[in-house]
Amino acid sequence: MTKQTSDIEAKKLPQRLVLASASPRRLDLLAQIGITPDAIEPADLDETPFPRELPRPLASRLAAQKCLAVASKFPNKAYILAADTVVGVGRRILPKTETAEEARECLRLLSGRSHRVYTGISAIAPDGKQSTSTIETRVTFKRLTQLECDAYIRSGEWRGIAGGYAIQGLAGAYVTHISGSYTSIVGLPLYEVRNVLQGLGYFTPII
Ligand SMILES: Cc1cn([C@H]2C[C@H](O)[C@@H](COP(=O)(O)OP(=O)(O)OP(=O)(O)O)O2)c(=O)[nH]c1=O
Q1: What's the CA-to-centroid distance between 23 and ligand 1, angstroms?
Q2: Which candidate, 44, 70, 96, 154, has a CA 20 to 30 Å from the CA of 18?
Q3: ipTM above 0.90, yes or no
Q4: Which helix (H) or strand (E) holds 11?
Q5: Would you call 160 helix, strand, or coil by DSSP?
């Protein structure tokens, strides 16, 4: 028996995990490290930034708020995990693109330069302790031609995605460099998620 397993048995810590997210990508990423949530309960929040709010604090605030909102539905019974991904070009926050016009404007801002992707993660333990952190990754795009922009807009892959592109899809071919965490760009930084959950006493399958 590992030390972590014996700690769990000694303290009788419950092992229920609730993923506070509607994102199938987050569920897939958790599965990648052997974690299957016992429940999925998306938080229904207004994600509008405050006036002059910067990308990093926004990601952190929304992750913490999503986590708290869902924790109130599972008092003292489970670990809750939430995340929020924000794409920033300088101080500017790019939207989760819903229209082709928005997506085209994002591509214009991303083309031929670097931007930052911030993913806030927040977890709450059954004893109410909350832990929140924000992971920053720098991403560089090639200069996009008109043909590339048109093709990407036609693909529809930008729909509902922060910053108007999904690195795990066609846009992966536009990324020349990343500095930071690939899984954080997709929506859940696995290294930090494991650390946060373990820090709160949750047993993760990979020791
Ligand atoms: C930049 C980028 C973002 N994304 C996704 C991750 C997130 O799902 C989404 C950002 O929106 P979020 O508000 O972080 O998440 P969500 O609305 O999809 O789900 P929930 O709030 O319920 O957890 O953009 C990618 O899938 N690939 C990328 O390359």
Answers
A1: 7
A2: 96
A3: yes
A4: helix 3-11
A5: coil
Q: How far apart are CA 93 and CA 87, in angstroms?
A: 6
Q: How far is CA 128 from CA 13, 51, 72, 81, 192, in A?
A: 13, 30, 10, 12, 20
The hierarchical CATH code for the domain 3-199 is 3.90.950.10
List pocket residues of ligand 1, CB cut-off 6 Å.
Answer: 21-23, 25-26, 42, 47, 83-85, 87, 96, 117, 161-163, 165-168, 185-187
